[in-house]
Amino acid sequence: MAPADDPDRDRGDESVPEPPRADPVVGEFVTETFDYDGGRKVTVYLPPGRPEAVVFAGDGQLISGWGACLEAVGTVPTMIVGAHRVTSEDEMLRLGEYSPPIDPARFAAHEQFFVHSLGEWVRSRFGAALPAERTAVAGVSASAELSLAMGMRHPDRYHTVFAASPGAGYRPPAVMPKMLPRAYLTAGTLEPFFLENANRWAEALRVAGADVVMNERAGNHGDPFWQAEFVRMVRWAFGSG
Question: pLDDT by residue (tens digit) across 224-241?
């Protein structure tokens, strides 16, 4: 689609510093509007060097802005492709896009847009055709459910899942697929509902044999630890610059 004009927890790399807030952006932001759902914006963060990794993200109006933090701590050059959330104030529309059981038809339409339309556009627009091993999918809260769903349903495209404080609409299936993504999950001590969901996924993936990190952080839903953990996620998945 073309643009229109639980128990035991592994710990992440605690040596990664908190991202400085005052560092300038050294990459570039590109925002375009697609004709999906009457007009949906996508913001791409382009690192200053040729991308060596790419992260596709829901709630992209937020996550794409974290690219500067990656540069500040010296990760590998990482492109962030952030699909914005639905603009309607009806939260059920957002949940329907991000969680398969809530509105299967709406989820399927968004899945087609997110996986195929965005993937093809990134390859044609930016010449980025990185292998699954250098591709991750990310989300926070409801969009963390999207990232888990995309990783579980398309592990051949997204080798790694980043999920911060996932909701409970999408849960681990009773029978896990044979091919599983790597996963880095995080949640805060002051958000017990989301912490329980993150631990549920971490345990299910770990039991199924996946490579999993579950990092419990001091904080509440939406706190700055999401951004700090995103830096750790990228370093864990793709290494340092």
Answer: 999 999 999 999 999 876
